[in-house]
Amino acid sequence: MDEKTIIAPYDRLKIIRNKDRPTIRDYLPLIFTDFYELHGDRFHGDDKAILGGIGRLEGIPVTIIAEVKGRDVYENKEVNFAMPHPEGYRKALRLAHQAEKFHRPVICFIDTPGAYCGVGAEKRGQGEAIARSLYEFMTLRTPVISVVLGEGGSGGALALGVCDELAMLENAVYSVISPRGFASILWKDANREEEACNIMKITAEDAVSLGVAEQIIPEPEGGAHNDPETTAENISEFLSKSLKDKMTKSIDELLKSRYNKFRKIGEFSE
Amino acid sequence: MTMEEWFKQVTKRFYTDDDQPKEPDFKCPRCGETTPAKELREGLWVCSHCGYHSRMTARDRIELTCDHDSFTEHDAGMSTLNPIDFPDYEDKIKDLQEKTGLTEAVITGECTIHGEKCVIGVMDSHFMMASMGSVVGEKITRAFEFAEENKLPIVLFTASGGARMQEGLVSLMQMAKTSGAAARFSQSGGLYITVLTDPTTGGVTASFASLGDIIIAEPKVLVGFAGRRVIEGTIKQRLPEDFQSAEFLLENGFVDMIVERKNMRRTIAHLIRLHRSGEVR
Ligand SMILES: [Zn+2]
Q1: Residue B131 touches chain A, beta carbons under 8 Å
Q2: Residue A115 contacts residue A156 (beta carbons within 8 Å)
Q3: Strand, coil or helix: A57
């Protein structure tokens, strides 16, 4: 493979914020066939910030759950800039349990600045919705594979990130809070975003070295927007390899290593 | 012993008469009224004007909740490292450890409450706003694991400003780790009681704090996911006073009951007893 120049964290942020960066809507037809979107959480409504459905990956039926970024201002308004409400996470869980029932693997795509912060979100239990996702995905008796497409923002991203294998697109970031939020809370200065980016350890390589991600999916030179088809092929390649690997393992084995992956994250002395 | 006598005995254990610390009066963040420090303590740190259940140290909470001398601490020496090499983080932790006498933002262990044996964890907002990093995550996880191995119920008093920013992604992952531990404990059939205290927010609300079989909140405490100012910034208007209060959560269906501090011990013991009868596990 060609030697690539290492892109600084802040520049990756610029790449994933590029208005032409492909979203799950672009990738869906390139990766899956026979896709049917399934709507609603059966309690409150249908959150468009999270897309769910069933389809095939190389012929294998799978459940797909994805955070949806808009491709223009109208789409973004509709999908609330990919910031899910509690009903979005509850829809995701409904579909995850459905997948479990029919022994379908679950494939999650993460791409959110974070869970929505608002009055309705609080009233309907945003905290509970995320907590329940973490709890249920940890014990879900079917393989779960997640891919961070662009922004992996905080608990709103993690809610779709409790899985057997996590991959990040090469320029994707994954963080406890947005770099802007980090700078604003710790240094009371949101303008120190670039500095925050550089110390937060948010890149795909960082996520791998911290034990959070297992794989990095290469992007074309300059970023996924330069060649969405090739990026989609790279994602497909990862997914089918990972899927085949997970499907040979027993569920109990998968659950044990899923738990242990998170169980061992943390650095302390005693 | 009546409840009043018991409380007098307990509060006396904290401060003898010749050992009166010079504490500033308590100004209630809810009603703005002032209560002298001694009176506040005698009233179990509850605002006598509005009933707001103010923040307590973890040590005080343990004294107040556990039967006398029944508490054994676990993992007392566990201290965080610096997983993302955040500048000056070690120094900040060391300072806080000296200032608070705590090694981290949670104390865990085992105890009896009115004779009922249980695992207990108490978060302390005086230590970096009880944010959850490696140590909080590990201690809470071990507490669930210990409870499972020993077939004991677990009671967690939560308080937190959220994830520990200084530990980056590692702190975010503690949400998954603790929720996973809660899930496994639940599948083993154990009883988990959460007591939400002031303030429980962010990543702790979005993980183990919201996963109790029974969720109790103290009156008037703040519990929520997002910060109030963040939401006000988004919607560009002031939020009502009771937004994200225990009462707001009860009304919206996210807590089982609001229990006053003076009744907490008895309530927890009763709940544990209710789950013990029949011994089906
Ligand atoms: Zn008051």
Answers
A1: no
A2: yes
A3: strand
ipTM metric: 0.97
Q: Which residue of B has its CA nearest to A116?
A: B226
* Cis peptide preceding B199, ω within 30 of 0: yes
If you measure from the C-alpha of residue B198 to the centroid of ligand 1, how many angstroms do you get, rounded to a whole number?
A: 13
> What distance lies between CA B82 and its chain's CA centroid?
24
Nearest CA in chain A to B231: A118
Count Cβ atoms within 10 A of the Cβ of residue A127 and give its class: 0-12 exposed, 13-18 middle, 19 or more buried.
Answer: buried
pTM score, two decimals? 0.94
The domain segmentation of chain B, as residue ranges, is 1-52, 56-277
pLDDT tens-digit profile of A241-258? 999 999 999 999 999 999
Question: What domains are defined for chain A?
Answer: 9-260 (3.90.226.10)
Inter-chain residue contact B207 with A125, CB threshold 8 Å: no
CA angle, B179 as apex, B71 and A84 as ends, to 5°?
A: 140
In sequence order, the β-bridge partners of residue B222 are B245
User: What's domain B56-277's architecture?
Assistant: Alpha-Beta Complex (3.90)
At residue B219, what is the residue type? Answer: P
Helix-strand-coil split of chain B, %, nearest 5: 45, 20, 40
Q: Is B179 on the interface with A (CB under 8 A)?
A: yes
